[in-house]
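tool_call predict_complex ligand=UAG
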Amino acid sequence: MKLSELMPEDAFAPEDGAVEVRGLTLDSRRVEPGFLFAALPGVKTHGRDFIPQAVAQGAAVILTDIAVEGLDIPVLVTDEPAAVLAELAARFYPRQPEHVVAVTGTNGKSSTVEFLRQVWSAAGRDAACLGTLGVTRGTAREVTGYTTPDAVALHRALDALASDGVTHLAMEASSHGLKQHRMDGVAVSVGAFTNLTQDHLDYHPDFADYFVSKELLFSERVAEGGRAVVNVDSEWGRRMAETARQRGLDTVTIGWRGEDLSIREITPRPASQDVSFAWKGAEHSLEIPLVGEFQILNALCAAAIALGDGVETETVLATLRQLEGVPGRLEKVGETREAAPVLVDYAHTPDGLDKLLRAARPHTQGRVIVVFGCGGDRDPSKRQKMGAIAASQADHIIVTDDNPRSEDPAAIRAAVLKGCPEAEEIADRSAAIRRGVSMLGEGDCLLIAGKGHETGQIVNGTTLPFDDREEARKALGEREAAHV
Ligand SMILES: CC(=O)N[C@H]1[C@@H](OP(=O)(O)OP(=O)(O)OC[C@H]2O[C@@H](n3ccc(=O)[nH]c3=O)[C@H](O)[C@@H]2O)O[C@H](CO)[C@@H](O)[C@@H]1O[C@H](C)C(=O)N[C@@H](C)C(=O)N[C@H](CCC(=O)O)C(=O)O
Ligand SMILES: Nc1ncnc2c1ncn2[C@@H]1O[C@H](COP(=O)(O)OP(=O)(O)OP(=O)(O)O)[C@@H](O)[C@H]1O
Ligand SMILES: N[C@H](CCC[C@H](N)C(=O)O)C(=O)O
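tool_result ok
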């Protein structure tokens, strides 16, 4: 594409309009001949430090926020280069699924988009979802490594999906993604909100900034005339709904306190839950084959979005009755010969861990045993809180490592243990899981929290292969072999 096709005429010198742009990137390491390199300010450094590398690799245009002298290629300077990059990406990759739903909130985004994909697919829509688990269409999954990919990767993915016939996309909107303009230029027809509790205070200076970043979905990203589906059980949700109403969005409220979708009752059964709710005044009762109240909240959020899209009530209810779980979210990986279950979950926030431990209790006659740790280079103020939550909800705790990244793993565990001084400490996650499995008695339940679907342990910049589900199955196998 020529520069003149990508940008308004006054954004570049007239003689530069004919420059051919062959690709876009914000990472100098990915520059190829003819690419536009967006040198963006970052948390650790500024992309302008890498302009020489980008030029050496053949960059044709630079987009940044401060004038750069001495280059013989066009340099476009703007106060908001990340936002401009996203607009360029939307022009470079012009196709998007016609109906894009974006889900935000601290917890429940991946589950909600996956459930929505299942409902749409059952209704015959060509549907996909995009988020922490990657891009999922049917049974195919492509990993992106982000909850909300960078603007170029995101617009490229949307274009590829639309070109491939996908009409309905449910995507996750992270606070990082919203604040960093990764989603600018996406025509979002529905925004949804699950909940807001503590997370990411390593990146956001305070909780208010975290809230305002999520609020951008409703204040800016959902298109004019679009819809908002908001869980209003928390004060934060009620504020989101207010923002959406002020924008003039068609605002649907859901949850225990929801006006449009009101939950009446959720009753746990051994491997499912009985759920009653009202949608626009009509009462419905059904059994959903998932455990954990939070999974029902996510499933009903997906249901409210689909019902608002015009999917038949019967199709929505029929899908909920056969809903498939999400990888690494309360995923049962096996059980002992005494039928004590082992479940892997992605709880990595205080609220997530609290909800997880509460979810296990009604299904457990004996002890709830939990193995977990906290991530390095992530909100350190979560650690002690998660320890304290485990201490108050679990019967036995094993504190271990979870992606220490650049931090000292022992210091992370020590911070967690401040909240649960009685816990066992086993640094090696594999050994911690084996210990948890070895302890299981009749009626007990083992929860392995924090890594869910992840397939690696990140230590000092290296990702070592590691999968909680495989480790748990191995440990269960060893336990059974020892019984023979
Ligand atoms: C905190 C955060 O959002 N970090 C993202 C951010 O990095 P940064 O601000 O630290 O960038 P930087 O290292 O200072 O570099 C500044 C600029 O120079 C560029 N650069 C850097 C080095 C180089 O050699 N060449 C180069 O061009 C970078 O691409 C960047 O544009 O911009 C980078 C480029 O897009 C991202 O890769 C990086 O994601 C890091 C790896 C990350 O871990 N992000 C996580 C926290 C994240 O984004 N998570 C959210 C939310 C998850 C959730 O809700 O649970 C997600 O949406 O995935
Ligand atoms: N509605 C909810 N309320 C509270 N906790 C939840 C809820 N839904 C999920 N969780 C917890 O959060 C974990 C992650 O769930 P999920 O992946 O759906 O959320 P997410 O917002 O996509 O998080 P991430 O972007 O980090 O993957 C679950 O394994 C569970 O422990
Ligand atoms: N998307 C979250 C996931 C955290 C999962 C946990 N395993 C960790 O590494 O802290 C993050 O990057 O903060």
